[in-house]
Amino acid sequence: MDQVHKRFTAEQVKVLLKGYCQGSLDRVTIEEILAISRSRFFAFLKQYRLDPHKFSLAYQRKTSTRIPASVEKEIEKELMLEKSLIDDSTLPITTYNYSAIRDRFIKRDIKLSSPTIIARAKNLGCYQPHPRKNIHDHEVVTTAVGALIQHDASHHRWSPYAGERWVLITSLDDFSRKIIYADLFEQEST
User: Fold this and answer.
1) What's the pLDDT at 142?
2) Which residues are paired to 167 by β-bridges?
3) Average pLDDT, integer, range 34-61
4) φ, ψ for residue 145 (rounded to 5)?
5) Which residues pair with 172 in a beta bridge?
6) Which of 8, 23, 95, 122 could form a disulfide with 127 if both were Cys (CB 3.0 to 4.6 A apart)?
7) Where are the domains of the chain?
8) Which helix (H) or strand (E) holds 103?
């Protein structure tokens, strides 16, 4: 529902509040007409009783809703940096991290919310909807910890600052699904 000041004039609300003060209208009726809560009704009534002639539906925001142009440019710069990391096929980065962007701004004393950053990302084409997760049923073929160890190797540039690919070799216990060993090597070996 729209805000009260968009649906009624101050004069219309004054007439209703005057009727309440004179006893010709009850509170519930006014709340239904204005589509407001009980607490909002009493806030209006208090303001009206203080000075009926100065009663107004206008209000002043306590915080600015506009982000300065310089911050907008910084948001775009950070999103494009994330996009370049995702587009780099040599890196294992596949998703945007909007919270990390927000945290970088907080370190610079710029307070932004993640939804604000996500809205800018959508406008700049830097947004990926959450993919639906495939349900993976893992079938444990062992009956005890340590009975079967799975070894795997992954070749990636593990950091955007790394100049070359490294191999991550991991060992995983099949029963507990815990990583027993993991280390980075320049090349894959036994």
Assistant:
1) 79
2) 155, 185
3) 88
4) -65, 135
5) 150, 179
6) 122
7) 4-54, 69-124, 137-190
8) helix 98-107
Mean pLDDT of the chain: 87
Q: How confident is the model at residue 17 (pLDDT cuts 50, 70, 90)?
A: very high
pLDDT tens, residue by residue, 93-115? 888 889 999 999 999 998 888 89
Q: Which two tokens stand for residue 37?
A: 């809560």
46 falls in which pLDDT band (50, 70, 90)? Answer: very high
In b/e form, how buried is each residue of 13-43, taking b as 16+ CB within 10 angstroms?
Answer: bbebbeebeeeebeeeebeeebebeeeebee
Q: What are phi and psi of 183, to 5 degrees?
A: -160, 155
What value does the CA radius of gyration of the chain take, rounded to a whole number of Å?
A: 30
Both tokens assigned to 141 = 């073929």
DSSP 54: G
Is it the case that residue 61 has pLDDT exceeding 80? no
DSSP for residue 53 = G
Q: Which residue in 36, 47, 29, 39 sits closest to 8, CA to CA?
A: 36
C-alpha distances in Å from residue 64, one per residue of 67, 99, 111, 130, 161: 8, 22, 12, 31, 38
pLDDT of residue 18: 92
DSSP code for 69 = H
Q: How far apart are CA 72 and CA 76, in angstroms?
A: 6
Q: Cα 21 to the chain's mean position, in Å? A: 45
